[in-house]
């Protein structure tokens, strides 16, 4: 099950920074749009559970997640509805609801995001992360271990 | 255990948490300047506690990089910037500043508890707690552990754009959920005045009304707006107080007004409590 839903994904890219507010989510969005424009099939997995910015950036904040036989169906966003998204943002009852979870609960959802989303055939899956080096990062890397990660892009600002 | 914490924190008069849902909006910068601002009154004892375990910015901003924590009979000694301004951060416990602290929640919680239980702060007028972005382990734990004393309230920092406000609204709801009073909101990076042509630009345009509208909608106080000043980043990088280095900057004037409002809130709070007692 772990590999199955990611079996059709060619390249997995993590976007990281120690620091918050440097433009990780913005870069993920722009990168996805640029790759899609270049004819690639792209998805974004947003593992920032406390501050999920991806839905809003692609104007998909009002979308809901549906189920299919192989798991959760990613939300299709972007102008051509061709970018596949998964984020906790789609699972909240109200957009201002705080997700006040400790590590173990965050880890459980991230494992589900990695193994239970039916991504289908993608050229690139871009993973947006929160700032830091903690539960989300450890869990994401662990859950993606069976797949071959392309690598990590590190984002910073000059100061 | 709760008794231990209560004993240690008994001599703390006021506690202020600096929060934001969003990263990179200036929490640590604000915490550092709030500490400097309050400590300008030499009769006040100020403590600055940095519970951002993964990205501790306070040591650098306070010019204390490379300092180590010393143990004594009475516990861990804070690192002092001034006689009346003591600092504690995981940054002081690392062998190298580039060491990554890759810890899951429980280990982070353990260290935060130690910071509160084992640090010998002494008599403190203001304990300021700088937090990482988010609403997770660190935030839950600090609220839980500090229930042994009392928290005057939280200052929530944001920047004007909707992407920040989105996360900050969640933080306001977090405060409400855990019954943490909100002293108010600070809007950082609110406009930029060019030092050459003096024109004002909105680098982060408040497309949905900025902090002002959000505060109106949520019924919380807007403590003030601080404009962008490139000197702020430079002072932080050099570990100097921006308030001292650029006393005439519009940003300094904003910060000072905000600091005063926070002081007034805390003092008022105290008077109300004394009346009740």
Automatic annotation (TrEMBL), chain A:
Keywords: 4Fe-4S, ATP-binding, Iron, Iron-sulfur, Metal-binding, Nucleotide-binding. GO terms for molecular function: 4 iron, 4 sulfur cluster binding; ATP binding; ATP-dependent FeS chaperone activity; metal ion binding. GO terms for cellular component: cytosol. GO terms for biological process: iron-sulfur cluster assembly. PANTHER family: CYTOSOLIC FE-S CLUSTER ASSEMBLY FACTOR NUBP2, NUCLEOTIDE-BINDING PROTEIN NBP35 YEAST -RELATED. Coiled coil: none annotated. It comes from the Eukaryota. This is NUBP2 factor. InterPro entries: Mrp-like_CS, Mrp/NBP35_ATP-bd, P-loop_NTPase, YlxH/NBP35.
Automatic annotation (TrEMBL), chain B:
Residues 13-184 form the AAA+ ATPase domain. CDD domains: Mrp_NBP35. GO terms for biological process: iron-sulfur cluster assembly. GO terms for cellular component: cytosol; nucleus. Signal peptide: none annotated. Keywords: 4Fe-4S, ATP-binding, Cytoplasm, Iron, Iron-sulfur, Metal-binding, Nucleotide-binding. The keyword Iron-sulfur applies. Component of the cytosolic iron-sulfur (Fe/S) protein assembly (CIA) machinery. Required for maturation of extramitochondrial Fe-S proteins. The NUBP1-NUBP2 heterotetramer forms a Fe-S scaffold complex, mediating the de novo assembly of an Fe-S cluster and its transfer to target apoproteins. Implicated in the regulation of centrosome duplication. Negatively regulates cilium formation and structure. This is NUP1A factor. It comes from Urocynchramus pylzowi.
């Amino acid at each position: 099950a772990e590999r199955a839903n990611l079996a059709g994904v060619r390249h997995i890219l993590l976007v990281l920074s120690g620091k918050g507010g440097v433009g990780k989510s913005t870069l993920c969005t722009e990168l996805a749009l640029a790759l899609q424009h270049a004819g690639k099939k792209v998805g974004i997995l947003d593992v920032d559970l406390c501050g999920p910015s991806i839905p809003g950036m692609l104007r998909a904040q009002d979308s809901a997640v549906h189920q299919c036989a192989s798991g959760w169906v990613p939300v299709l966003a972007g102008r051509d509805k061709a970018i596949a998204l998964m984020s906790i943002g789609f699972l909240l009852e109200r957009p201002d609801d705080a997700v006040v979870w400790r590590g173990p609960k965050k880890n459980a959802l991230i494992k589900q995001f990695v193994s239970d989303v039916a991504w289908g055939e993608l050229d690139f899956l871009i993973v947006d992360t929160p700032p830091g080096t903690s539960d989300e990062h450890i869990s994401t890397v662990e859950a993606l271990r069976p797949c071959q990660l392309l690598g990590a892009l590190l984002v910073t600002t000059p100061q | 255990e709760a008794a231990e914490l209560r004993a240690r924190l008994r001599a703390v008069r006021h506690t202020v948490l600096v929060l934001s849902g969003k990263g990179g909006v200036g929490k640590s910068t604000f915490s550092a300047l709030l500490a400097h601002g309050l400590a300008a009154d030499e009769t006040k004892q100020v403590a600055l506690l940095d519970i951002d375990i993964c990205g501790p910015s306070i040591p650098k901003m306070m010019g204390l990089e490379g300092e180590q924590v010393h143990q004594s009979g009475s516990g861990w000694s804070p690192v002092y910037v001034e006689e009346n301004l003591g600092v504690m951060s995981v940054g002081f416990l690392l062998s190298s500043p580039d060491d990554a602290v890759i810890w899951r929640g429980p280990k982070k919680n353990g260290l935060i508890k130690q910071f509160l239980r084992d640090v010998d702060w002494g008599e403190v007028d203001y304990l300021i707690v700088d937090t990482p972005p988010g609403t997770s382990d660190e935030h839950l734990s600090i609220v839980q552990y500090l229930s042994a004393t009392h928290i005057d309230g939280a200052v929530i920092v944001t920047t004007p754009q909707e992407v920040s406000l989105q996360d900050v609204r969640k933080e306001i709801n977090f405060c409400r959920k855990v019954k943490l009073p909100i002293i108010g909101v600070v809007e950082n990076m609110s406009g930029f005045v060019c030092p050459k042509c003096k024109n004002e630009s909105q680098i982060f345009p408040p497309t949905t009304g900025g902090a002002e509208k959000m505060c109106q909608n949520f019924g919380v106080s807007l403590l003030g707006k601080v404009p962008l000043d490139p000197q702020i980043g430079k002072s932080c990088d050099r570990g100097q107080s921006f308030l001292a280095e650029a006393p005439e900057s519009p940003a300094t004037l904003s910060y000072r007004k905000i600091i005063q409002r926070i002081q007034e809130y805390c003092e008022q709070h105290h008077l109300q409590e004394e009346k009740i007692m």
